[in-house]
Amino acid sequence: MSKARGITMLFASGAMVAGFGLAGAPAALADGPNTPPEVVAAIEAASWPELQEGQETWEVAVVKFLLVEYGYLDVTEATEVFDERLTEAVLEYQEAEGVDATGIVDEPTWSALTDDLGIVRQGDSGNLVKAVQYSLINGHGYDLDLDGQFGPATRDAVIDFQTGAEIDPDGEVGPITFQALLTPDEVSVD
Predict the structure, then answer these.
(1) Which of 35, 70, 77, 158 has the maximal Cβ count within 10 Å?
(2) How many CA atoms lie within 13 A of 67 on its CB side?
(3) In this structure, what CATH number is given to the domain that contains residue 21?
(4) Is residue 162 part of a domain?
(5) Domain that holds residue 153
(6) pLDDT in tens, 87-106
(7) Residue 25 lies inside a defined structural domain of this protein
(8) For the whole model, what pTM was predicted?
(9) What is the domain count for the chain?
């Protein structure tokens, strides 16, 4: 066998192995590998809340926590009021992420925010944890401290939420769990 052909076969077999490895990967990391596909599909199909200046809702505070963490907003308290300062931060974030810069937190913006979120789990601390805690407390009625510490109480609340949302409960917040937290009235498996 020629050296060139051997190298080609090596690359081809490596690509095949990599392809099979990716094909076997779960659809959403840190959202429980055994989440039923129909649940994942229903959550992914749910509409994100569209937020814009003048609105006052708990989801606005979640956006503020995320943008503070990502370095686009400098506030000491994340209120539920979508003000001019938040519009400017959203515009700056959208431009940096290559999303249409509208100042409105829409589906493409939520998608970018979620991608940047990564995985939030026990032992983490900071504004990403506050975003998760705020969602659990104000969006779903959990009795937690908004302390930015992902401890056992936050993990237990995430597991309880995941169980109720039919997400395989692993206690970690990845993209599927995060979207389910923010789209509670939209998710339907039926």
Answers:
(1) 158
(2) 31
(3) 1.10.101.10
(4) yes
(5) 3-182
(6) 999 999 999 999 999 999 99
(7) yes
(8) 0.83
(9) 1
